[in-house]
């Protein structure tokens, strides 16, 4: 009787064990600075459902919203250490992987239309994907953040010199903006994380904001600014990156789903963000004081952009990559 009981118990345990394995779930922890109810948040929730449906619940995406996982610099560090598996980041976050050449797309004045940026990024994507893999990261998909406009509190920005003595800032890991301010001269920028921008605006520690209209709305920065320059300085890009080692550890089926759905989600998000960023800019033009630059004023800014680009080539960016991206952009900074 005892032997029969043991046999039955072992059989039951074996069946239970098989069931547990079959029903096991794998969770990927993903960082983002986006709020849950933002356009990014809504798309990431759809991605989470699609991945779960495709894998019958075997793969779960756990998004940490609103910068709960830290700023972009910290999120990339956490991917390296295994505390995070993936993150949705802007170009600054992408550069924190060690692939600083990706910031060539963010040189002021280089790209002012999405069509030209798309063509250049498509031409360079394989080369950059290889660079990211070399640093231990896989690009699940490229995405965009929006068209950057100069915004301010209580004054207009027509000339580069208008920024002198004003409260300006740059993000940690951004090598371009400090060089821009240095080229203008007479400016002492503050270094801030994205989560520090709103308190700085509220406390009058800064009064200049270079940001996409949608981002300014979603992060509540727009409530503090009064003036908007209609000129596009930069088209901010981003990406959905994951630990290559973590992806490699997934069963082939789960990895395939994550790669496929990640790319689809990024493509959808790109179209959505461009559209609603343009809508956000239209709203800002209605609710704030908006103004355009004259052609002589544009030339003043262009001279600064050319100087910044020359300073970046060879010091921050690999000359060959820099030259190729500038050429793909149509060489707008040539003199």
Describe this structure in words.
The protein has 335 residues and is an alpha/beta fold. It has one domain (26-328): Bacterial extracellular solute-binding protein, family 7 (D-Maltodextrin-Binding Protein, domain 2). The chain is built from 12 helices and 10 strands. The protein has helices spanning 2-22, 39-54, 72-81, 91-95, 114-134, 176-184, 194-202, 213-218, 244-249, 252-287, 295-312, 319-328; strands at 26-32, 59-64, 86-90, 137-152, 169-171, 190-192, 208-212, 227-229, 235-243, 289-291. Strands 1, 2, 3, 4, 7, 8, 9 and 10 form an 8-stranded mixed sheet that branches. It has a two-stranded parallel sheet with strand order 5-6. The N and C termini lie far apart (94 Å).
Approximate shape: globular
Helix/strand/pairing category: alpha/beta
CATH topology: D-Maltodextrin-Binding Protein, domain 2
Number of DSSP strand runs: 10
SSE sequence, one letter per element: HEHEHEHHEEHEHEHEEHHEHH
Strand fraction equals: 15-25%
Gyration radius, rounded:
23 Å
Biggest beta-sheet profile: 8 strands, mixed
| Count of distinct structural domains | 1
How much helical structure, as a percent, in the residues? Answer: 40-55%
Within CATH, the superfamily carries the name Bacterial extracellular solute-binding protein, family 7
Mean pLDDT across every amino acid position = 92
Distance between the amino and carboxyl termini: 94 Å
CATH architecture: 3-Layer(aba) Sandwich
Low-confidence stretches: 1-22
CATH class: Alpha Beta
